[in-house]
């Protein structure tokens, strides 16, 4: 079987071709959408053709007219596009300036370094970009636009899903992808008996159309028969999933935004530092810091308890690449559930521990040397592990000891812990490794007013030395206190003594466990995260459908005539569809095979048919 | 035991050298296309015997050999010998590049994409791979100098400036998401790169088409005559972009899942997250632009170019100069 296919390719084929269709109703002809099954598009969409009602030409004056006009603007493709680009641009400053939400210390540092510029930038919300009025305005407008855009489309599409494929165009040959053949059924035509021949040809045309109908149905098309005179035709449409996918995608974006917005109100994130051997109870007062949504009540915390039994860490060996690099952090916890049952649990990076609706994360770790301070009479005024903050990758750590009561004066101490102490040429100490191979604690002692009596909140990790007198270390007469685990030193001015307790288990052969470790845990609760994920995955699925499901119409027309059945096959893409031509060819070939492999008697040129 | 990482470095530099050769061949190919298409108006085909002399082209670009057909004859039928040399070299370079990447992975005992040097290695490997795979289905050799040039610059810069020894992974990177998230991100980068190259060609072609329409004598670089028209270029760019966009969407989601596990929240506007989002929004804008009256054509091509500029910025500038949680460049 040979055939001819029209081969005119123009760039704007969808519009030009649909309007060229012959027997579609006048109205549809002008819109270029020959059926209600075409997706609805904003008026400045590339596939949109004015629908002739003149609606968009002149806004009616008056409030309603202007409001309608404004709404139409807001829900247009152009505005959506401009808002998208504005969103992208507005997000940039947040990556340039430190943000309070992500990097609060960076903001403080910026303020210290740029005292004049800071207030100006802060007034522009440049340190809270993503909650700033201007950023919020952009995304809220975008989502209003989005909702306004998709609601009519959802309505329209719901109808389209039930609509019949459009009437077969009169002149299929005008379509780009068109194949024409002539089929002579078995027995041929009988030139002597015209009436019989006509009846035979009509029956054959009906058969051909019936076969095509079944064939297209099997290919997943929705089909309708349009017969008129001696012409039998099948109109078929597929790819409704394309528009469904597009709508699912856009709706899912709204879903993400709403779940994030609502979910934030019910979420909380708290931090707690726990030293080996110590416990944490999940109540508001036991947190070091807490960030909660507005709907999280004071008593809405599950009262489970955690005890840090031990903390694991490994170091890369000397002589290996990355020597000394620490890793495989694991906090081994005992969990007491609210119902009293207990279990073991481990928190690792990338592996949070789940307790009820909470997830426990390992944020950081460090050393907490156990310090005992006695006064001149030998009475303990302090005896506890003090958390030191790591300053570098070898765990040189800094900590503050404050003793407001019990000594003759208020005393503050600024200490450095060197897990593997080495003396530099300058005389200063440094740490050569993160493990406790040669631990050394150095302390400088200050006395005076610690500033905690007036109620001002003070960080336990900072010592404000402005109102204090330095008693040891550089610029004083006394040397800094230096202690190894188990050692005790006198405090200046005969105030008492300080001991760096050795926390090693009994009989330990080395110093590797002489200082307790602590972990900084983050407890996070956010029930909406799962829903955000569900919507995100829906969006991804919708996107896949919207971009890859081809939406197309196919027509098969069988016209009975004196010399056989004239068959035409044509396809029309709705949207990008690079495989349409092949699909029309396949359809024609498949149809031919189904028609008992009967060969056509002669070719009909497609052009001008 | 042979030092695998040294082998990796050696093969990588070999790949870079071969890519340089590929770039040169492709560049001469474009030059020759210009010359050939300029002559094509005048010359009647003299037979295409030009394999040998085409190699040392440049000087004899004006000679008739290889010029077939008169004006308007489909240039596709021509065998662009230099382009094929460029492609052969690209394949060869890619094999060395692959070897370098695999040996690096074996030396490290993990996937070879865990620091900036390795990101560059895998990213350019995929750019080249996608290009070469697409070549089997589409004639895209006119993008060759563009692609091999881009790969050459990125890979050369990474090998020269970003190299780090193999070191064990830091804890947050010990995750299956390293395998998935980073790989898919690199793959979408590769698709965006191709779309970018096509969009640039589209803009040049559009300028030429406009000048022809205006009857101007000078219509720009002659090789454009051997390229498809703007509509075809734009459609190809669009198709690469939408596939890249889906992968990028997945990257964004996978990254959030990983961030939830590693950092205790799925989204925090960390610098890298922010830029991933910006890129996503830019490409969503591009897809919209293509469907918006007055925005199809040149404006949307500019958006595609802006999108890819953001991708490169995210890779080269954000990784190196911005501070944030994603501090995995391995540079100190
Ligand atoms: C949050 C903002 C938005 C994003 C991220 C977004 C993203 C996308 C993406 C990725 C596509 C391509 C997938 C597809 O064809 O289904 C798309 C298509 C589309 N979007 Fe949006 N969109 C947004 C808002 C809007 C708004 C406000 C409108 C209405 C004015 C709109 C109307 C459309 C239309 C009509 C299409 C189909 C385009 C076509 O025919 O090819 N979108 N959008």
From TrEMBL, chain A:
GO biological process, one term: cytochrome complex assembly
Region of interest called Disordered, as start-end residue ranges on this chain: 1-49
Domain called ResB-like: residue spans: 77-583
Domain of life: Bacteria
Pfam assignment, any one: ResB
Membrane-spanning ranges: 79-97, 134-154, 247-268, 529-549
Biased composition regions of type Basic and acidic residues, renumbered to the chain: 1-16
Record keywords, A-Z: Cytochrome c-type biogenesis, Membrane, Transmembrane, Transmembrane helix
GO cellular component, one term: membrane
InterPro entries, sorted: Cyt_c_bgen_Ccs1/CcsB/ResB (IPR023494), ResB-like_domain (IPR007816)
Cellular localisation: Membrane
Membrane topology type: Multi-pass membrane protein
UniProt name for this protein: Ccs1/ResB-related putative cytochrome C-type biogenesis protein
Automatic annotation (TrEMBL), chain B:
Alphabetized GO MF terms: heme binding
Keyword Transmembrane: yes
Protein topology in the membrane: Multi-pass membrane protein
GO biological process, one term: cytochrome complex assembly
TM spans (from-to): 6-28, 80-96, 116-135, 142-164, 176-201, 237-259, 271-289, 301-322
NCBIfam families assigned to the protein according to its UniProt record, in alphabetical order: cytochr_II_ccsB
InterPro entries: Cyt_c_assembly, Cyt_c_biogenesis_CcsA, Cyt_c_biogenesis_CcsA/CcmC
Chief location category: membrane
Compartment annotation: Membrane
Protein name: Cytochrome c-type biogenesis protein CcsA/ResC
GO cellular component: a single term: plasma membrane
Record's keyword terms, sorted: Cytochrome c-type biogenesis, Membrane, Transmembrane, Transmembrane helix
Location of the Cytochrome c assembly protein domain: 113-326
Taxonomic classification: Bacteria, Bacillati, Actinomycetota, Actinomycetes, Micrococcales
Transmembrane is among the record's keywords: yes
Pfam family membership, one: Cytochrom_C_asm
